[in-house]
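Hello Y.,

Per our agreement to keep a running log of every chain we model this quarter, I'm adding this entry. I've kept the format consistent with earlier entries: sequence first, then predicted structure.
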Amino acid sequence: MKLTQLLRTSIRHYGVHCLRSLSIVASLGIGGMVLFGSAQSADAAEQVVFKYRWLQRTVPVADLSAFAETGETSPQLNRYLNGLDEEPETFRQALTREVRIDPVLLDQGLNHPLGNFALDQISPMIHTASGGGDRQALRAALVLSASNDDHISLIELIETYPTQEIHVEGERLINAYEDIENLRDRLEQWTTLLNLNI
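Predicted structure for the entry above:
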């Protein structure tokens, strides 16, 4: 399946602003996926609202990306990290740890009815402000993340999430790797059991 077909299938349910992102990806082609991932489209997340117990902080995605890459924190991000029980490096590792996954398997599996169950296991951790369209937004972000390099990390999910604001539940964030890994394992099992054409 071609990359543009893969992405079109994944985000066809999410609406016009996701389709604008698709047109950007299609025009860049496979060689431009890295550029798309690093530059972010106008429809990608710009602000992350972190919640941790009673604490809530809004952090620009750009600050979070810089922290994931270099370990340097902005004043806004530092205020959030100071309220956590975990060390900043543990938080950074949770953001950057990668799960290898076939993007075609991911796209086909998440567009199968059983995929909704898998998405519902992750959406309580990373979701829209209103809770509406969580499945569609998460599906789009997962496929876009994997299509770049056959890997998914939490920072990539945040960077490609197709709403300007994204909410992340900090108490579950440390387990993000296991949540994504479990998602991959479920999809692989379902593909085998149901003989999906992937």
